[in-house]
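Here is the promised in-class demo. Please do not try to memorize the tokens; focus on the logic of going from shape to residues.
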């Protein structure tokens, strides 16, 4: 009976730890999304300007 409680608690702790890890990773990705989008748009604008200059 005691072993079952220990196993259950260990499994619950594992689930909580993985859930917390996933939440931290998701929060980091959401925070980075803003900066990655800006960098991508800046690079896209740079390429567009280079193409406009070469077509003149």
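The designed amino acids, position by position:
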């Amino acid at each position: 009976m005691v072993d079952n409680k220990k196993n259950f608690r260990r499994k619950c702790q594992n689930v909580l730890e993985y859930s917390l890890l996933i939440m931290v990773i998701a929060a980091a990705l959401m925070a980075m999304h803003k900066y990655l989008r800006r960098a991508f748009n800046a690079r896209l604008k740079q390429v567009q300007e280079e193409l406009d200059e070469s077509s003149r």
